[in-house]
């Protein structure tokens, strides 16, 4: 039988889904050289919320974090998640900024870039795919999987064919909410295999409990790579377990080139880290449970952990179930966007506002307004006309590609603004992605460095 390869997610998606991306580099540094010997197809370690959280919560330079991981794992492909024209932020950026970001990601250690668009609008994938290929990295064209009256097997296959024309190396089916059933996965993988001659990567979560069955049926249909998490950081809103699937697939006759002794060493290392986050309340038991209701509200793992965190800060956890019920209603109002970053955050925040304010759309976030204007691309379905009128009034939505309207000198202006706060192009890109957070981080770094210089140069009296 055929070979099945594994992408380990403990450094990115499992970390993001279970503990809202709060794991510091120093916590896992000691296990990286061991992970390098495990035989993974790749290790997902960057992108998604790791960039934001490193700057916002961990006081870490995300670029330095990436370089450090690469230095410890030279023999393993490092993988990142990129939101197409959104990069790692929550708005669209000019083509120049997208190209620079891709260039620096590869230069700092990324080997595979998984590129998706929150609306499956291929116009938002083209620039980052082409630049990834120019830089010599692998481009994994990605379907943001969801179900709705407007998402069909035929549309997904059309999307895949368009990505193949753009030159992607693999196709990833990204099931961010764990809602893809075994039969749906089998049908979709089979249809893609018939349509294009590219390896297929499967990504799902255990939120609904379907993950193991979905992977097995996808592999039967010909999927080549699966995303999994070391077992102590698996399950719930995270991915299915690496060790469990390696064991099961071998028994079924598939070739699995993972070192079981290394896998155990990796898992044993992360167990006390998991226990620490359970003890301090960051890892909420809610995200470790199976929730079949997610088949309806379709909230992805990282969104659930962040939603719980936000409601706790507002002392509103008693409204959690109401927010979950409101989420699919908001999604339908907005034309059935897939619930993946940044759309998941927009829909989740709007659902929360609707519940906590006691009146639907009494408060509409700036990002939702931008979405309704067409700044994120074309909505998959029709947006509720009443909401369009309420938010935009007589303003007409953008019909063309929004990135073409953006200032191509965005990078140079940001560099000039930062002055000596920015030591590299990477610093400038951090600022462009997260202006206030990155500026604060860079200013604090400068103060620390100046203090260190004074301390080492001034004689002790």
Instruction: Please state how the strands of the largest beta sheet are arranged side by side.
Output: 1-2-3-4-5-6-7-8
List the uncertain runs: none
Biggest sheet character: 8 strands, parallel, barrel
Count of helical stretches: 21
Strand content: 5-15%
N-to-C order of helices and strands: EHHHEHHEHEHEHEHEHEHHHHHHHHHHH
Distance between the termini: 74 Å
Describe the structure.
The chain has 461 residues and is of the alpha/beta class. The chain is 49% helix and 8% strand. The protein has 21 helices and 8 strands. Helix 9 (182-195) links the parallel strand 6 and strand 7. Helix 1 (13-19) packs parallel to helix 14 (301-313), helix 6 packs parallel to helix 7 and helix 9 (182-195) runs parallel beside helix 10. The radius of gyration is 22 Å and the shape is globular. The model has no long low-confidence stretch (mean pLDDT 93).
Comma- or semicolon-separated keywords:
single chain, alpha/beta, 461 residues
Topology, element by element:
Elements: E1 5-8, H1 13-19, H2 25-28, H3 32-35, E2 42-47, H4 50-56, H5 62-72, E3 78-82, H6 95-107, E4 112-115, H7 126-134, E5 138-144, H8 153-165, E6 170-174, H9 182-195, E7 200-203, H10 211-220, E8 225-228, H11 242-251, H12 260-279, H13 294-297, H14 301-313, H15 320-333, H16 343-357, H17 366-373, H18 385-392, H19 410-418, H20 425-433, H21 435-457
Parallel strand pairs: 1-2, 1-8, 2-3, 3-4, 4-5, 5-6, 6-7, 7-8
């Amino acid at each position: 039988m055929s070979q099945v390869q594994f992408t380990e997610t403990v450094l990115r998606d499992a970390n993001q889904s279970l503990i809202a991306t709060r794991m510091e580099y120093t916590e896992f540094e000691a296990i990286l050289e061991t992970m390098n010997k495990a035989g993974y197809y790749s290790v997902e370690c960057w992108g998604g919320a790791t960039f934001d959280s490193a700057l916002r919560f961990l006081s870490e330079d995300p670029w330095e974090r990436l370089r450090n991981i690469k230095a410890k794992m030279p023999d393993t492909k490092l993988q990142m998640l990129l939101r197409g024209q959104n990069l790692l932020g929550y708005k669209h950026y000019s083509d120049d900024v997208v190209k620079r970001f891709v260039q620096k990601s590869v230069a700092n250690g990324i080997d595979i870039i998984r590129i998706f668009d929150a609306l499956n609008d291929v116009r938002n994938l083209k620039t980052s795919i082409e630049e990834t290929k120019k830089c010599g990295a692998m481009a994994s064209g990605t379907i943001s999987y969801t179900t709705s009256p407007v998402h069909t097997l035929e549309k997904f296959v059309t999307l895949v064919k368009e990505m193949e024309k753009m030159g992607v190396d693999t196709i990833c089916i990204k099931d961010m909410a764990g809602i893809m059933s075994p039969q749906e996965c089998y049908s979709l993988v089979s249809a893609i295999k018939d349509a294009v001659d590219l390896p297929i990567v499967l990504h799902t979560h255990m939120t609904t409990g379907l993950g193991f069955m979905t992977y097995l049926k996808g592999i039967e249909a010909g999927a080549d790579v699966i995303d999994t998490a070391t077992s102590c950081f698996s399950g719930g809103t995270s991915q299915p377990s690496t060790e469990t699937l390696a064991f099961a697939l071998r028994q079924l006759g598939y070739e699995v080139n993972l070192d079981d002794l290394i896998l155990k060493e990796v898992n044993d290392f992360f167990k006390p880290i998991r226990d620490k986050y359970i003890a301090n309340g960051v890892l909420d038991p809610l995200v470790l449970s199976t929730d079949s209701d997610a088949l309806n509200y379709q909230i992805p793992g990282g969104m659930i952990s962040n939603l719980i965190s936000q409601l706790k800060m507002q002392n509103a956890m008693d409204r959690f179930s109401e927010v979950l019920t409101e989420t699919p209603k908001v999604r339908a109002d907005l034309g059935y966007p897939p619930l993946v970053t940044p759309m998941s955050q927009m829909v989740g925040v709007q659902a929360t506002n609707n519940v906590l304010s006691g009146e639907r759309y009494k408060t509409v976030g700036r990002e939702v307004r931008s979405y309704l204007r067409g700044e994120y691309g074309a909505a998959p379905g029709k947006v509720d006309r009443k909401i369009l009128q309420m938010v935009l009034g007589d303003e007409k939505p953008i019909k063309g590609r929004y990135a073409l309207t953006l200032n191509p000198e965005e990078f140079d202006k940001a560099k000039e603004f930062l002055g000596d706060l920015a030591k590299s192009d990477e610093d400038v890109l951090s600022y462009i992605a997260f202006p206030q957070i990155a500026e604060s981080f860079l200013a604090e770094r400068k103060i620390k460095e100046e203090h260190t210089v004074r301390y080492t140069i001034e004689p002790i009296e």
